[in-house]
Amino acid sequence: MSAAAPNTFPAQPGCPLCDELGGQLVWQGSKARVIRAQEAGFPAFYRVVWTAHATEFSDLGPAERAECMELVAAVETVLRAQLSPDKINLAALGNMVAHLHWHVIARWRWDSHFPGSVWAVEQRPRDLAREAEIAARLDAVDRAIAQALAPQV
């Protein structure tokens, strides 16, 4: 476990998640935020971003790790209830942006990369009509996420 005190990690100049929101803000708490990312082909692609610049999940103390995962689970729960995807993908890679964040991505069997990851090779052409149907519902999804997280950290 890191010796750093909770939420005392300094912002890192040049870090895109320290310098910017990283997408459309859906919810902001004192320790984290939820954004909707703009990822072509994947309209219901959300990120839970830890506010303090922690690089690894284990940099957080036990209570903060639990809080972070509760946020991830809440976003997943709303996506499942609102959109009925075939699968939810969770990922915390941080290879490109070394700032703790979790990807929460609703997936469908018809999406261009399913069953592979969103970063894998395309399996079929994009279904723009279905993507547009999902995109049209995202404002309501965003509101549901914000409502679900209102009492959170």
Structural class: alpha+beta
* Helix percentage range: 25-40%
Q: In the residues, how many domains can be counted?
A: 1
- Cross-sheet strand order for the largest sheet: 1-2-3-5-4
CATH fold group = HIT family, subunit A
DSSP E strands, number: 5
Mean pLDDT figure: 89
Shape: globular
CATH class descriptor name: Alpha Beta
Q: End-to-end span in angstroms?
A: 21 Å
Proportion of β residues? Answer: 15-25%
What order do the helices and strands come in, and which of them pair?
Elements: H1 16-19, E1 24-28, E2 32-36, E3 45-50, H2 62-83, E4 87-91, E5 101-107, H3 128-135, H4 138-149
Antiparallel strand pairs: 1-2, 2-3, 3-5, 4-5
Helix pairs in contact: 2-4
Short description:
With 153 residues, this protein is α+β, with helices and mostly antiparallel strands. The protein has 4 helices and 5 strands, in the order H-E-E-E-H-E-E-H-H. The chain has a 5-stranded antiparallel sheet, with helices on one face.
What would you note in describing this structure?
The protein is α+β, with helices and mostly antiparallel strands and 153 residues long. The protein has a single domain (16-149), classed as HIT family, subunit A. Helix content is 30%, strand content 18%. It contains 4 helices and 5 strands. It has helices at 16-19, 62-83, 128-135, 138-149; strands spanning 24-28, 32-36, 45-50, 87-91, 101-107. It has a 5-stranded antiparallel beta sheet with strand order 1-2-3-5-4, with helices on one face. Helix 2 packs antiparallel against helix 4. The longest helix is centred in the middle third of the chain and has 22 residues, at 62-83. The two termini are 21 Å apart. 27% of the residues are buried. The model is unreliable at 1-7 (pLDDT under 50).
